[in-house]
Amino acid sequence: MSVKWSITKILMCSLLACSSVSYAQETKTIEAHQVFRDTVIITKYDTVWMEKERVKIDSADVSNKRYSRYDKRIHRYRKHWESLIPTHTKLQFAGNMGLLSLGTGWDYGKRNQWETDIFLGFLPKYNSKRNKITMTLKQNYMPWSIDLGKDFSVEPLACGVYFNTVFGSEFWTHEPDRYPKGYYGFSSRVRIHVFLGQRLTYDIPPHWRLGARAVTFFYEISTCDLYVVSAFVNKYLKPKDYLSLSFGLKTQLF
Q1: Residue 100 to residues 51, 114, 169, 224: CA-CA distances in angstroms?
Q2: How buried is 159 (Cβ within 10 angstroms: 0-12 exposed, 13-18 middle, 19+ buried)?
Q3: How far apart are CA 215 and CA 88, in angstroms?
Q4: Do 32 and 143 belong to one domain?
Q5: Mean pLDDT confidence for 48-73
Q6: Is residue 70 part of a domain?
Q7: How open is the CA angle 111-144-250, to the nearest 5 degrees?
Q8: What range does the record give for the signal peptide (predicted)?
Q9: Is residue 146 located within the same domain as residue 95?
Q10: Same domain (yes/no): 96, 19
Q11: Which is higher by pLDDT, 165 or 28?
Q12: Are 53 and 38 in contact (CB under 8 A)?
């Protein structure tokens, strides 16, 4: 009986010793986790938990990223080329630049109040021998824009200047030799125009946009250098003789 009791005591002591060692190892492991909380990932029940402070330390600070001179030069290079992409297209009827003119252009300025356009126009032959092609370089300025509700806006004043030329051998820049010197004091190839007008813009809702962001209808009243001189010299001329009315449609791409 005493032998059995001794064996039982030995087994119990062994179990207690093993439990103590296991507890000590677990305690050391927990302490190690507590000491190196910023360098280890704590796992519990197969789920990975990361300390909030650890995430903050490891997160990259992009704001302090420095760009080399090469990166800055490439950025400027791409930005300059991207500025050459046209921002709108235009279709204009009349205006002493052809019966119908199709063009493209660029908006710029703090409020996109400036526009530069280039047009190619078609001029029927009428009483001449052939049809003609015109080219126009146009500069526009819109000082104000007034919102009319959510989708509409109006520009009560649009003004500017444009240069127009007609392609053809019958038109000249310098006076031909067949005329006496100073007989014509102007060029029949290049005309300088000024204009005033108004615009109405419709901002297309995002879910309806296909190829354009907005559509603008405009009209302009214009005259050219030759017409102004004629109006001063010939008092019998009426406004309809030296003023031109034109209409147009602008499609805003960006």
Answers
A1: 70, 23, 22, 18
A2: middle
A3: 10
A4: no
A5: 60
A6: no
A7: 70
A8: 1-24
A9: yes
A10: no
A11: 165
A12: yes
- Measured CA to CA, the distance from residue 249 to residue 8 in angstroms comes to 104
Neighbours of 224 (CB within 10 A): 23
Indicate the residue type of 192: I
pTM for the predicted model, two decimal places = 0.68
Pick the most confident of 6-20, 190-204, 223-237: 190-204
Same domain, 177 and 133: yes
Convert 190-206 into a string of H (helix), E (strand) and C (coil). Answer: EEEEEEEEEEEEEECCH
Q: Which residue range is the domain that position 183 belongs to?
A: 80-252
Give φ, ψ of 51 to 5 degrees: -65, 145
Per-residue buried b or exposed e for 58-96, using 16+ beta carbons within 10 Å of the residue's own CB: eeeeeeeeeeeeeeeeeeeeeeeeeeeeebbbbebbbbb
Torsion of the alpha carbons at 238, 194, 110 and 86, rounded to the nearest 10 = 120
Q: Which letter does DSSP use for residue 67 in this model? A: -
Cβ atoms 92, 104 nearer than 8 A: no
Task: Let me know: does 220 contact 95? Beta carbons within 8 Å.
Answer: yes
